[in-house]
Design goal:
about 300 residues; alpha/beta; Rossmann fold; 6-stranded parallel β-sheet; 11 helices; 6 strands; Pcy1-like; EC 2.7.7.15
């Protein structure tokens, strides 16, 4: 059908990309190949010769021409980028047959003000997003709330996010006006994984990770660990290594003793069998009615 052929042509065009341009210059326009990172959005916004008419969700689901993909926007912090983030973006990319996925990533300054400190810097988070296979374009220093001017600037058709009200910046739901405008499309959260969960694991097992990194060559200063604490941790590492050595020796000793016991038991069984065999042969020869008693010489005596 028309949609399939258009999507096919679009995929074919992605595979015929020439030499890769420097990352700083690659802004705007569709990504041509999965061999390349996604694009950074232009400061001036999206420019196209094709008129950008408003779409309904029904129209978007039927499919659009290859030259007019549905521009879906998803935003977030994306700190410690993980499978939950990737799954949400995969859903957003596959909302419609022909989707150009734009991902907004908030800056450090904005994130620290409204949500809290991040593990990764904004540059690291931008880099993580442009290397996600589902992302076509990344907006750096994305706004916390989406204004009509921002939506117009980037020619955004729909905004994708999970449907749980996002309370922030004094609002009960920062996506409320997007939902009321009919531009919101819900994705599903992935249970059991979040940036907060990962940070909780690190905090919970703090000592283990400090010891791990000291063993790998990081200094106490790198890890913000005091001199006394560093010595204590290194001493504990030595004690643990000694315990492991003793444990290994014990295991080997147990194996040796078990082997000796098995051989001893086997030897005792063989002795018992030989003893019974010797006694049986002796009785057959010298016992009452034995072969030795039956000899003529024995009767003459």
């Amino acid at each position: 059908n028309r949609t399939s052929s258009m999507v096919g042509r679009r995929r074919g065009s992605r595979a015929t990309r020439g030499s890769q341009q420097p990352q700083q210059q690659r802004t705007g326009g569709p990504r041509k190949s999965l061999r390349e990172p996604a694009l950074f959005a232009k400061e001036a916004g999206y420019e196209s010769e094709v008129p950008h008419e408003k779409l309904t969700i029904a129209q978007a689901k039927r499919g659009t021409p290859a030259i007019r993909p549905v521009r879906v926007y998803a935003d977030g912090i994306f700190d410690l980028f993980h499978s939950g983030h990737a799954r949400a973006l995969m859903q957003a990319k596959n909302l419609f047959p022909n989707t150009h996925l734009i991902v907004g990533v908030c800056s450090d300054e904005l994130t620290h003000r409204y949500k809290g400190y991040t593990v990764m810097t904004e540059s690291e988070r931008y880099e993580a997003l442009i290397h996600c296979r589902y992302v076509d374009e990344v907006v750096r220093d994305a706004p916390w709330t989406l204004s009509p001017d921002f939506l117009k600037k980037h020619k955004i058709d729909f905004v994708a996010h999970d449907d749980i009200p996002y309370t922030s910046a004094g609002s009960e739901d920062v996506y409320k006006h997007i939902k009321e405008a009919g531009m919101f499309v819900a994705t599903q959260r992935t249970d059991g994984i979040s940036t907060s969960d990962l940070i909780t694991r690190i905090v919970r097992d703090y000592d283990l990770y400090v010891r791990r990194n000291l063993q790998r060559g990081y200094t106490a200063s790198d890890l913000n660990v005091s001199f006394i604490r560093e010595k204590k941790i290194r001493l504990q590492n030595q004690v643990d290594r000694m315990k492991e050595t003793v444990k290994t020796v014990e295991e080997k000793s147990k194996h040796f003793v078990h082997s000796v016991e098995e051989k001893s038991q086997d030897l005792i069984h063989k002795w018992e069998e030989k003893s019974r065999e010797f006694i049986s042969n002796f009785l057959e020869s010298f016992g009452p009615g034995g072969a030795w008693v039956s000899l003529p010489l024995a009767h003459n005596r």
